[in-house]
Amino acid sequence: MSEAILLVGGQGTRLRPLTDSTPKPLLPLAGVACTTHQLLKAKAAGVTRVVLATSYLAEVFEAQYGAGEALGLELVYAVEREPLGTGGAIANAGQFLKGDGPILIFNGDVISNHSLEEQYRVHESSGAVATLHLTPVEDARAYGCVPVDDSGRVKAFLEKMDNPVTNLINAGCYIFDRSIIDVIPLNTVISVEREIFPELVKQHVQGYVSDDYWIDLGTPEAFTKASADLITGRAYSPALGILNMEYLANAAEIATSARITGGTFLDKGVTVDEAAHVHQSVILADSWVGSNAHVENSFVGRGVKIGSGIKLVNVAVGDGVEIHEGTTVSEGARLSA
């Protein structure tokens, strides 16, 4: 398994305003772009060549990664001029593949500690045409569920329901035989989850079930949690190694009476004033947190000014926003300049 397709074309509408100028997969987790975490995980599993399936702000990916030399990978870019859905994106990227062997395909908005090597072993030993990473969740009602038989073979792909028949869900990482990719129609909007997988079940789709750490980065709150989990050691990435820290600060200026807790990330040029408390949050470059401010489970963009005494809980703040002293910010607010 030397080639992969990374699906990074989504617009990240649920993360706005954070994604107004930055694609969701390039938002940082513990100071490192999500895409970098994923590329290095694939590399650690033996992948040497990755096709990035891009659409929204496609040019930003190539500007950041180029041909992949800095990561020790060969990177190529398959650009969708119009969004084609997950299946259409895979078909479009498939034109840039070179080999005939199994292809790793993974979503650009997931962080997982599961073993790609073990998923590949299951794929090879089962004789399946596709092998999916499946993860158990506490409440599967928000997801489509994926029941399997005693051998791990997938029986069906079921839409969201009030009483799921299993707590196993599609975790967004697949291994496909190359022949499957080659028959997906080109230039066609198609969903791999709703249209391709149900057809593949008629052949043989295998589930690789793992209860290792997994998170879907669909919301700002999920991004802040994943970043904190990487910093505190609950999650792992080859980009960072094993960490066990209360916070991670990149040349930030922190007052002696300020408290930084819960796996917070502070980017370069961040200033945190006296008696402020920042907990399980991400604060990007050149932002300022005033005295006695409280920032919790929040993602704060670049060049933001948070006035003295301000309280932010589960808030996403876009670049350049100024929150003046005395302002009341509702929990869960989304603030843009």
Automatic annotation (TrEMBL):
CDD domains: NTP_transferase. Residues 4-230 form the Nucleotidyl transferase domain. Residues 247-331 form the Mannose-1-phosphate guanyltransferase C-terminal domain. Transmembrane segments: none annotated. Gene3D superfamilies: Hexapeptide repeat proteins, Spore Coat Polysaccharide Biosynthesis Protein SpsA, Chain A. Belongs to the transferase hexapeptide repeat family. This is Unannotated protein. It comes from freshwater metagenome. The lineage of its organism: unclassified sequences, metagenomes, ecological metagenomes.
